[in-house]
Amino acid sequence: MSLLARLFGNKPRTAAIAKERLQLIIAHERGGSSTSTPDFMPALQQELLAVISKYVSVNQEDIKVTLEKQGNLEVLEVNIVMPEAGAKR
Amino acid sequence: MSLLARLFGNKPRTAAIAKERLQLIIAHERGGSSTSTPDFMPALQQELLAVISKYVSVNQEDIKVTLEKQGNLEVLEVNIVMPEAGAKR
């Protein structure tokens, strides 16, 4: 459960203000060798968002995407707040 | 950078033992209302893995998947260790 409390922050919330949220984190750590994979993160990001939008109806403006790099580590974070009746099926 | 150090642990590693790794975390927090989306995580997981396998060549045994639930929060974690020459393109 170590990661659970860190996701979405750790503040208690009441049911009255609860929104449905989806968070996607992709972390890519490159190896030390020159045979490492090329940078596929931008393309991967597009495809993953396309998959997610098949399951939940989301407005483009409710999707927040951030990409961080630090040395060999690249982290893509996608935060989505869903509309009240977000179910597609 | 708050999340970066937590991903993949925080231990220094030498280039000699560096492996290429990909970590995918999907967190779904349901809203308080009864109109929340149904549980799409298992199907979503399958599709996301299919997308990832288009970009990196991975052996099934190198994929570790864990699913945790805590109240309204559901967290799917996928850890992939790539082979040395993991690039597909």
Q: Quote the distance from N terminus to C terminus of chain A.
A: 29 Å
SS-based structural class of chain A?
A: alpha+beta
CATH class descriptor name of chain A: Alpha Beta
Low-pLDDT residue spans of chain A: none
Main sheet: strand order of chain A? 1-3-2
The CATH superfamily of chain A turns out to be Cell division topological specificity factor MinE
Based on the structure given, which CATH architecture of chain A is correct? 2-Layer Sandwich
Largest interface: A-B, 52 and 51 residues
As for the CATH topology of chain A, it is Cell Cycle, Chain A
Instruction: Estimate the global geometry of chain A from the Cα principal axes.
Output: globular
Overall average residue pLDDT of chain A: 75
How many individual helices of chain A?
1
Instruction: Classify the beta-strand content of chain A into a percent band.
Output: 25-35%
Give, in order, the helices and strands of chain A: EHEE
Describe the structure.
- Two copies of one chain form a homodimer.
- By secondary structure, chain A is an alpha+beta fold.
- Chain A has one domain (18-81): Cell Cycle, Chain A (2-Layer Sandwich).
- Chain A is 17% helix and 29% strand.
- Chain A is built from one helix and three strands.
- A three-stranded antiparallel sheet of chain A has the order 1-3-2, with no helix packed on it.
- In chain A, a hairpin with a 2-residue loop joins strand 2 and strand 3 (73-81).
- Chain A starts with 20 loop residues before the first strand and ends in an 8-residue tail after the last strand.
- Chains A and B meet through strand 1, helix 1 and strand 3 of A and strand 1, helix 1 and strand 3 of B.
- Strand 1 (21-29) of chain A pairs antiparallel with strand 1 (21-29) of chain B, so a sheet runs across the interface.
